[in-house]
Design goal:
globular, three-stranded mixed β-sheet, homodimer, DNA-binding, alpha+beta, 6 helices, 48% helix, 145 residues
DNA sequence: ATATGTGCAAATGGTTTGCAGTGAG
DNA sequence: CTCACTGCAAACCATTTGCACATAT
């Protein structure tokens, strides 16, 4: 998990740079986000943290994520039906594949979106800064079930 | 607006087929969705409708949209920050370009996503059924402002 | 020492629901 | 005539906020 450690350091550094303190609760949130590859919801993070710090409040988790979003150290994936999921491991735009049955979210390798973004910018006159690409379907497991 | 008329007919037909009634309020929602190219929110639709039917309730708008979603006669675009927007004119997956300042949403022409979807299916083992592709940036107007 | 962070509880805001009355088919 | 639809208000639920206390720096 060397890359998760690096992500964690990066997050801590970012918070310190803008004058934020590193509390144990906050560190626990950062750890979960830096390590997880399954794009957890706030609730999932909260449940996880309560094992370590039973008194931690949901509000603290939300507040921490808000700061990380501002720092662009976490990527928010909002869904109309199922709320928001977070990716602290790869906090930059990249494609996702979402199972419409069990809700699993995975990162496929690949994709040169930059080329397509440039094309869109040209055609629309927009100054494109970021993007989002999601594919929906049934994961291998749910195809059998 | 010939294609909007066609969309409207298609929607009405769809509703009738599953035994739903066509009330004036409902028809007003359908019209707005079939005609608009600006991806309105529920609130925008509601405001629009009140001009014609001042007593119409928000709940009715929501309920109608829920049915249209089931029929796949309207495409829902959920955003984490700004809620959901709806496209009844082209209710199938297609790319969108969203202005991060004024919230405008436009449909660029183009895109062969099918190829990319097939690639994703192969790599992930998922059975891909649909997708979503959004580009974010500043629209020409907001680049000046 | 001194603000920032925490935890709790209350507030918010978009969306959904329950239900009695209304109206499309 | 009937049963689905409407409108209203209440319920929901994820997220946000206010505030007194705790604590990282």
């Amino acid at each position: 998990m060397a890359d998760a450690d690096q992500r964690l350091e990066q997050m801590v550094r970012g918070l310190r740079e803008i004058g934020h303190r590193i509390t144990p609760q906050r560190l626990a949130v950062l750890k979960i986000l830096a390590e997880s590859k399954d794009h957890p919801s706030v609730g999932m993070i909260y449940d996880q943290i309560k094992k370590e710090f039973p008194t931690t409040s949901l509000a603290t988790v939300y507040k921490t994520i808000t700061v990380l979003k501002e720092l662009e150290e976490v990527l928010e994936l909002g869904f109309a039906d199922v709320g928001s999921r977070y990716d602290g491991n790869r906090p930059f735009p990249h494609p996702h594949v979402i199972c419409t049955k069990c809700g699993a979210i995975v990162d496929p390798q690949f994709s040169n979106m930059e080329k397509m973004a440039a094309e869109m910018a040209k055609k629309s006159g927009f100054n494109i800064t970021h993007h989002r690409l999601d594919f929906f379907g049934l994961c291998p497991k749910c195809q059998k079930g």
